[in-house]
Amino acid sequence: MNDKAELFDQARPRLLGLGYRLLGTRMDAEDLVQDAWFRWSEADHKQIADPQAWLVTVVTRLGIDRLRQLKRRREEYSGPWLPEPVFDDMVPGAERLAEMASDLSMAFLLAMERLSAQERAAFLLREVFDYSYDEIAAMIGKSPVASRQAISRARARLRDERPRFDVDPAAHRQLLERFVAAMAQGDAKAFASLLAEEVRWIADGGGRVRAASRVLHGVRAATRLAMGLQRSWRDRLQMRLALINGQTGVLLLLDGQLRSVVLLESDGRAITGIYSVVNPDKLRGASGSCH
C-alpha cells in the first residue's frame, strides 16, 4: 500500500463517522468519503501539512452542500423521517466502532435536523470531534467569530436533546428486554407500564411500506399501536437484540424477514421515545445482524 492510500485509510473511520452524523445515511456518508478520496488522490501532497485536517475539511464542505440538498428532499418525504440505522457488522474493527459509537442516538441525530447545515457541521466538529474554534473556522470557511456563533446557536437549540449518557446501560437494557417480552406476549398492561407519560413513537416507512403517518404521543397511542402490531403478526413475529447506532436495539422479523429496526430512548426508569425504521431502503445494511 502506498503512503497516499495508507494515510487515507487511517483517516477513513473519522471521515465516515463525520459524514454519517452530518447526513444521517450510510450511503450518503460513503459517497462523501469516496469523493474525498478522488480529491485526495489528485492533490499535491507536498502542499498539505496536515492530511487528516485536509480530508476532514473536504468532507465537511462537501457534506454541508449535500445536506442542503437533502433537507429540501426531506421536506417532501412521506411521513416522519428517521436516520438510517448503522449496525455493528457495518463498522468492522474495534477502532472504527469506537469512532462511530458516540452521539449516534436516533433522538440526537433527529434533533440535529433542526440545525442549519453549517451549524450542524460546526457543532459536530467541536462537540464530537474536538476541533478548536480556529480549526473549525478554517474547515467551514468562516471566521472564528462566526464559527463560535454557529456553535453557540446549535448548543442552544440542542440543549434539551443531548443523549443522556448518565443512564445506566443495565437499566436501559432491562427496559428493552421487558419491552420485547410485553410485545411478544401481547401484554398491554405490562407494555404501558414501561412508558413515560410523554412518550413519543416515530415510525419511518418512507411511503414504501405501511407505517404511522405522524408522530404518536402518549402511553395510550403507543400501546394501541404496539398491541395492534402484535395481533396482526402473532406467531409470525420474531424479535432479536442487536447493536444498532452504538446501543442495543431490536430487530423485528416477520416470517424470518427483517421488517423493522427499533431503538428506544429512556431515562433509566421509563421509555421516553420509540424509533422504528420500517423503510426497506434503510434496512439493507442489517442483513448480517439477522443471522
UniProtKB/TrEMBL annotation:
InterPro entries linked to this entry: ECF_Sigma-70_Domain, NTF2-like_dom_sf, RNA_pol_sigma-70_dom, RNA_pol_sigma-70_ECF, RNA_pol_sigma70_r2, RNA_pol_sigma70_r4_t2, RNA_pol_sigma_r2, RNA_pol_sigma_r3/r4-like
Known partners and oligomeric status: Interacts transiently with the RNA polymerase catalytic core formed by RpoA, RpoB, RpoC and RpoZ (2 alpha, 1 beta, 1 beta' and 1 omega subunit) to form the RNA polymerase holoenzyme that can initiate transcription.
Lineage summary: Bacteria, Pseudomonadati, Pseudomonadota, Gammaproteobacteria, Pseudomonadales
Cross-referenced NCBIfam families: PRK09636.1, sigma70-ECF, SigX4
Molecular function, one GO term: sigma factor activity
Domain (RNA polymerase sigma-70 region) ranges: 7-73
Species of provenance: Pseudomonas jilinensis
RNA polymerase sigma factor 70 region 4 type domain: residues covered: 106-158
GO biological process, one term: DNA-templated transcription initiation
Protein name: RNA polymerase subunit sigma-24
